[in-house]
Amino acid sequence: MSVRLAPFPVDAAPPRFQASTVRPLSPPRPGRRLRMAPLLPLLALLGSGAAIAEAPPRTRFARVGESLPMTERSIPSPRWYLLAPLPLDYDNTSCGQRCVVPIVYAWRELPALRGLSAFDARDVPELASPGTHRLLARAEAPTAPPGASDLAAAWELVVRRDDSYAGYASELIGVPFVLFPRHLPDGRHQTDARLGADCVALTIYGRRRLGEAMPYVAPSALHRFTWRVTGPVRAGDVLHFGFQTAVLAEDRAPMGVLDAGDLILHTFHGLAEERSLGDVPYHSAPYEVRRWKPSGPGR
């Protein structure tokens, strides 16, 4: 059950990767489009440089394993539902300037919580993992797809792995891919609100959650804020493929060597996710490893 919300006026040992090796780009899956290369260099300095503003009152933040008590006293024997964004390709450039393409959501009931007026979200696997989870209690099963009022009324549970840069970036797991995320009518940026992100917005979000006044920019503009790495890699480094960026979330053995078994955080169609570098469709494309500068550009 889903609906479009009204738009606003977006097994063998893995091979090692060598940064100096240039390989042909693996083609996208059928029906997918790689549009960032021609488009995003034109969008090099977009988005507010202000740090993320205070979260709405129904947003709760936690690290993995921390308590997240939830209560609903106004509804007898409530039924709890996730508002799950569908993994579609949302493209804000397809509807004109300042337009935000509507996100499609679906109800997903959590049967283990049926009838509970109080519980701890850390004990619910669907809510305890890193990412953004929107949750709503209802008196009965919905007869219509989720609407804008449901999204506004839902709790937003934001779980991060830890307090590192990559840990904060993990809050976007499960958020839909939106090409060129934009500001909403209420002034929030789609990525700050964890409603949508493209590849480079995901890398920047983690810096903004650390309290830095980092603007949302295009992949080509990240060079102003990062250094090229020629030595050992480490968690938090940015993998820059030109048209695509990703965050190195975990450097697995052999340590310091970027290889197909290392975990990355990225969004490349569908939903933001964490997966092995060797499993992403662009893994054989040429890339650079880059590291964030200690502070702003030119400092």
Q: What pattern of helices and strands is seen along the backbone?
A: EHEEEEEEHEHEHEHEEEEEE
Major sheet attributes? 6 strands, mixed
Bin the strand percentage.
Answer: 15-25%
The total of helices stands at 5
What is the approximate shape? globular
Q: In angstroms, what is the radius of gyration?
A: 19 Å
Number of strands: 16
Helix content: 10-25%
Distance between termini? 51 Å
What does this structure look like?
By secondary structure, the chain is of the alpha+beta class. The relative contact order is 0.20. The strands form four sheets. Strands 1-6-4-8-9-2 form a six-stranded mixed sheet. A six-stranded antiparallel sheet has the order 11-16-12-13-14-15. Strands 3-7 form a two-stranded antiparallel ribbon. The longest helix has 11 residues, at 199-209. The termini are far apart. Mean pLDDT is 85; it is low at 1-46. 10% of the residues lie in helices and 23% in strands. The protein has one domain (2-23, 33-48, 55-292).
